[in-house]
Design a protein that fits this description.
This protein is of the alpha+beta class. It has 10 helices and 14 strands.
């Protein structure tokens, strides 16, 4: 009975997190549509309905001016319906009767409100909960001598350096570190905790990067315990040394294995700690044990992430560049999808978004606010793409009309946007299916 009660409680808690995830997403949709609505009201457009959700109405209220505010059944999406959006309408307040510059402002305002909300919520997050920063977790022995000066998370005081700047450029998002690195000597500015427990800037010059190889376990039939305790050798463990010899060049593993005796000591690095495993050489050479090697370019360190609270002034200075970097990251990801650099498994559709959001909702309010910042920027960028059914495509049609002096056939425009919406929904669903 107790097990059933626990299972029921767990299920109800999961359902609650999923419902809260829908609330979070609908909140961001509401902000987007409020942008369209606000700009439309200021510029004199006739608005027929402001809806949150799609499908049948479950609640609606009609104002004296004829505007309808509604909540609809399907908790995905929403819209601000203007009079005469997809047709020629003689009403002077209808959407297509307005001047092109007014329509462009209305169409841009949804994304603008998303971006502004991301900035405002970002300030709250950074000031109250802190920013997520990259922290040096491990510095490998093969890194250059200057990189060895970086204080890593398993030093005597257990505090890793926070990577603050690279060559004078502040690090805002996770992929900034790789992008800011240069081929020549680099200057790292880190935040390091002093003896009084306060973080202060520390500059390390002359750090250089190189090309290294990592060797990772991809198959390991059998159980092997470390010499230090009961940790088992696992798939995806990185082999750091063999018989005390560092592994960082392509032929290192085979070179040191060939000169080994019957027993081989493999040193694994995990979480910044080292574990030693003794295996028979014949086992390593058998089909039961398989490694994969991957080359990478870097300074020979591993990083982790922590939350750090900057001062309020620093928060104000960081939030706009941070949102800008997130927007550029979205564009780089989309570009990577087109070129094949980014795999389809690295993105997700609505199901993935709801699942991820519900998991983050369970971790606390601070992380929910961080997620709102990220998704708000994503919505702003995505909606401005020149893709049929999105605001960006409609802006293109308005610009064409502005240049030509007459609109594209309204029916053709409506067909393009309608088909685009169907294709977009199908694509997002397909992405989720492929991830199953």
């Amino acid at each position: 009975m107790l097990n059933l009660l626990c299972d029921f409680t767990s299920v109800m808690k999961t359902i609650g997190y999923v419902l809260l995830a829908f609330v979070v997403l609908l909140f961001m949709v509401m902000i987007h549509e409020t942008g369209h609505y606000t700009a439309g009201k200021i510029l004199g457009f006739q608005i027929n309905e402001f809806a949150i959700g799609m499908g049948p109405k479950i609640f609606s209220k009609k104002k004296k001016n004829g505007e309808v505010f509604s909540l609809r059944l399907l908790p995905l999406g929403g819209y601000c319906a203007f009079e005469g959006e997809d047709e020629n309408n003689e009403n002077p307040k209808s959407f297509n009767q307005q001047k092109p510059w007014k329509r462009i402002i209305v169409l841009i305002s949804g994304a603008l409100f998303n971006f502004l909300s991301a900035i405002l919520i970002g300030i709250i997050v950074f000031a109250c909960y802190g920013d997520t920063v990259a922290t040096v977790n491990t510095v490998y022995e093969y890194a250059c001598p200057q990189a060895q000066e970086l204080l890593h998370g398993y030093a005597d005081d257990g505090e890793g350096d926070i990577i603050y700047k690279i060559n004078g450029r502040r690090v805002f998002v996770l992929d900034d570190i790789g992008r800011y690195m240069s081929d020549g000597p680099m200057t790292f500015t880190v935040l390091r905790k002093n003896s009084a427990g306060q973080y202060e800037e520390h500059i390390i010059e002359g750090i250089t990067k190189g090309t290294f190889y990592s060797f990772t376990v991809s198959k390991c039939d059998g159980e092997f315990l470390s010499q230090e305790g009961d940790r088992k050798l696992q798939v995806d463990d990185m082999i750091y040394k063999i018989n005390g010899n560092l592994l960082y060049q392509a032929d290192d593993f085979n070179k040191y294995l060939n000169v080994s005796e019957n027993e081989v000591v493999l040193t694994v690095v995990s979480g910044g700690q080292l574990y030693n495993y003794t295996l028979d050489k014949s086992y390593i050479e058998s089909e039961n044990f398989v490694l994969r090697s991957v080359s990478y370019s870097g300074v020979g360190m591993a990083i982790t992430y922590q939350t750090y609270r900057f001062g309020f002034g620093e928060c104000l200075l960081r939030v706009i560049p941070y949102c800008g970097e997130v927007a550029m990251l979205v564009l780089r990801t989309l570009g990577g999808l087109i070129t094949g650099v980014v795999g389809i498994d690295q993105v997700g559709g609505p199901i993935t978004t709801i699942s991820l959001t519900s998991q983050i909702v369970a971790t606390g309010f601070g992380n929910v606010l961080r997620l709102i910042v990220l998704i708000s920027v994503n919505l702003a960028v995505f909606n401005l793409l020149p893709v049929p059914a999105l605001d960006g495509c409609r802006i293109i049609f308005v610009i064409i009309e502005w240049i030509r002096g007459k609109p594209v056939n309204r029916k053709v425009e409506a067909y393009i946007n309608g088909i685009g919406l169907i294709v977009l929904i199908a694509l997002m669903v397909l992405i989720d299916i492929l991830k199953l």
